[in-house]
Amino acid sequence: MSTAAEELLAEALKLAPEDREFLAAHIMDSLEHPPAPDIDWDAEIKRRIEESDSGVPGIPGEEVMSRARKLVADARLRIP
After folding, report:
1. Whole-number Å distance between alpha carbons of 71 and 69
2. Which of these, 10, 32, 53, 65, has the minimum number of CB atoms within 10 Å of its CB?
3. Angle 51-55-57 from CA coordinates, rounded to 5°
4. Contact, 11 vs 3, CB < 8 A?
5. Rounded distance, CA 49 to CA 43, Å?
6. pLDDT in tens, 3-57
7. What is the 3-state secondary structure (H, E, C) of 9-77?
8. What gap in Å lies between CA 54 and CA 66, rounded to an integer?
9. Is the CB of residue 12 less than 8 Å from the CB of residue 20?
10. Is the CB of residue 56 less than 8 Å from the CB of residue 48?
């Protein structure tokens, strides 16, 4: 990381949380995003319905949310 970036980060971290969120969102928006995966959503929905109808057990909503929260928390820990 360059000295300028380190200095800018140090100053940004002194800001109020809502100001840091604003900056982070605009910086992320300025980066080139990879293309979205090419998914045939109609086929995916049909597959999931067929899976459910055939008796394949689903994942309880609470477990899904717990996993999602952990993934987000882990990702935040990796942000310098």
Report:
1. 5
2. 32
3. 85
4. no
5. 10
6. 998 999 999 999 999 999 999 988 888 887 766 778 899 999 999 999 999 998 8
7. HHHHCCCCHHHHHHHHHHHHHHCCCCCCCCCCHHHHHHHHHHHHHCCCCCCCHHHHHHHHHHHHHHHHH
8. 26
9. yes
10. no
